[in-house]
Write a structure and sequence with these properties.
The chain has about 525 residues and is α/β, with parallel strands linked by helices. The chain has 2 domains: about 5-360, no CATH class; about 375-510, no CATH class. It has helices at about 5-25, 35-45, 55-70, 75-100, 100-110, 115-120, 125-145, 150-165, 175-185, 195-205, 210-215, 220-230, 240-255, 255-270, 280-285, 290-295, 310-325, 335-360, 370-375, 380-390, 405-415, 435-440, 440-445, 460, 490-495, and strands at about 400-405, 425, 450-455, 465-470, 475, 500-510. Strands 1, 2, 3, 4, 5 and 6 form a 6-stranded mixed sheet that branches. The chain starts with a helix and ends in a 25-residue tail after the last strand.
Length: about 525
């Protein structure tokens, strides 16, 4: 490759990275926030050292963004856009430094096509922040193993700490990086230095506010993690969720890319000695264990598809290295992966483009039960306006609060109701969450309320916590398809609501906001009252 070719690929790679970032930033304002996004936005309005469900970094950065740039879909999503851009930069640096400019360019091309990465860099969730931390830690720890410089170990520790503050699954990075050092004959001696451990200590010190918060709140975050990890379930091994886990990975990466990832892992670990490059095994150890760990967990309990997402960052470098260019020195027989590469890349781009377009401007007649965006983001602004009308019509709007029976609805109402009022989630019959720390019964006793639920039969249940509750009023939510007038589009899908909401008028709050444990054996049932301190 000539010097001019190198410069060309480098320029195109940077253009792709920052062009994609600009596209995500502009696209971020074209569709409503999902329930999880408004939930994290709600966290940002209640600053704390940590939160019940997740690490605090997403709330801190949303707070920073909205404090200076107002409250909008774009400003809520801005931290994720920036974070995934940082992750893309680090992936390019890893590939370019140890595998060459061409592989670096192909890595950028692949990473900008994958739906999982696009969602992480677009939606306001911890995934994008963890991606930046994982990629940054991978780069600096690789530099540290390569050179032994203390500065690189410290930078790796800082990114590790940032990752822990973003998402708890970042803890997996520590054994991944350490196990590579034990495995590598080339770099094993680096672990005899004190600097790797100083880097770890530095990262753990960054995480101390979360530990302190949990110590003050009966370890409630860790109880929540244990619960979603299946601690409340009777121990059993089965394949009930394993196929679902694999299917989710294939869908989020695209099926052909997922196949190449699966093939790349053994190729990375079992390189011919004559062609051995330590970076391959390093990339294996910083990707495969993440996938394997959650695959094993899925044999016990349900695992969400995005949980192992960070591991695919360095896996994408392996795929580009093995399959985007011909490697005769590695593959003695015909490399079918090279033939699959362009199709994998094209289908990955197509899947991402279709999903994004369907999200912002629905055009495919997909049944509602198969179209998650229809149920996740449709109708929230309309519902918020309707809730404001109901509140203003109450006898005393100043002594009327707005509630949902799930934190998702309460958070969406908080963002999309005109005036963005504080809202309440009545968790009594569902599960504990952050609203248990913010809302106290004594502050609302005697107040009237307007509530929203997807259930039309809650009147008697709500009468446990209110003096009187009126029958609900139904609100139908429709999806607005841009292709509804095209000849191929079925009219019955346009005329069919995608979901229903029911608005309740309730009077005289009696108390009973917080979650009531169904059993004293429930792992979430802490010894002390929820929300004693923040």
């Amino acid at each position: 490759m000539t010097i001019n070719d190198r410069h060309y690929y480098i320029k195109i790679a940077w253009l792709l990275i920052f062009g994609s970032a600009l596209f995500r930033l502009l696209f971020a304002g074209l569709f409503p926030l999902s329930p999880d996004e408004t939930n994290y936005w709600q966290w940002s309005r209640h600053p704390a050292w940590s939160y019940h469900d997740q690490a605090p970094m997403i709330a801190w950065l949303i707070r920073l963004s909205t404090q200076f740039l107002n409250h909008s879909e774009i400003t809520v999503r801005l931290p994720s856009v920036i974070a995934m851009t940082v992750a893309s930069v680090y992936l390019f640096l890893i590939a370019r430094r140890w595998l060459g400019v061409l592989i670096g360019f192909k890595t950028v091309l692949l990473s900008q096509s994958i739906l999982l990465f696009y969602l992480g860099g677009l939606l306001a969730t911890p995934d994008g922040l963890q991606a930046a931390a994982w990629a940054g830690a991978c780069y600096h720890i690789a530099r540290a193993y390569d050179s032994g410089k203390s500065y690189q170990w410290l930078m790796g520790g800082i990114w590790f700490g940032f990752g822990l503050l973003s998402k708890y699954t970042m803890v997996v990075f520590l054994p991944c990086a350490f196990c590579y050092g034990l495995y590598s004959q080339v770099h094993r001696k680096r672990l005899l230095s004190i600097w790797p451990y100083i880097g770890v200590i530095f990262g753990l010190l960054m995480f101390w506010p979360v530990i302190r918060w949990n110590l003050n709140n009966d370890l409630n975050s860790f109880r929540h993690i244990a619960f979603i990890g299946g601690a409340n379930e009777r121990f059993a091994l089965h394949f009930k969720y394993f196929a679902e886990y694999l299917g989710a990975q294939a869908a989020l990466l695209s099926p052909l890319v997922f196949v190449l990832v699966i093939v790349a892992w053994p190729l990375a670990l079992f390189q011919p000695r004559s062609n051995y490059k330590w970076i391959y095994s390093y990339l294996f150890f910083t990707s495969f264990p993440m996938f394997l760990g959650f695959a094993l967990l899925s044999i016990h309990t349900r695992v969400y598809g995005n949980w192992p997402g960070a591991g695919y960052l360095t896996a994408s470098v392996l795929v580009a290295a093995f399959f985007s260019v011909r490697k005769k020195q590695i593959f003695k027989r015909k490399n079918w992966g090279n033939k699959l590469w362009p199709y994998a890349l094209i289908t990955s781009f197509v899947i991402s483009a279709v999903v994004l377009l369907q999200t912002a401007a629905p055009f495919l007649p997909v049944p509602v039960k198969l179209d998650r965006t229809a149920t996740e983001i449709t109708g929230w602004p309309e519902l918020g306006k309707k809730a404001r009308v109901f509140m203003d019509a109450m006898p005393d709007p100043q002594r009327t609060f707005l509630f949902g029976l799930r934190y998702q609805i309460a958070s969406e109402l908080a963002f999309y109701t005109p005036g963005q009022p504080e809202t309440v989630s009545i968790n009594r019959w569902n599960r504990p969450n952050v609203y248990d720390y913010w809302c106290k019964d004594e502050e609302l006793l005697g107040f009237d309320a307007v509530g929203v639920s997807g259930n039309a039969n809650l009147q008697q249940l709500l009468e446990q916590v209110f003096e009187r509750v009126e029958p609900p009023q139904e609100m139908k939510i429709y999806r607005h398809y841009i292709t509804r007038n095209w000849s191929y589009f079925p009219n019955d899908l346009v005329e069919k609501p995608v979901k229903f909401y029911y608005l309740y008028r309730a009077y005289g709050f009696k108390g009973g906001l917080r979650w009531t444990p169904p059993s004293k054996w429930d792992v979430r049932n802490s010894a002390g009252a929820l929300g004693n301190s923040q």
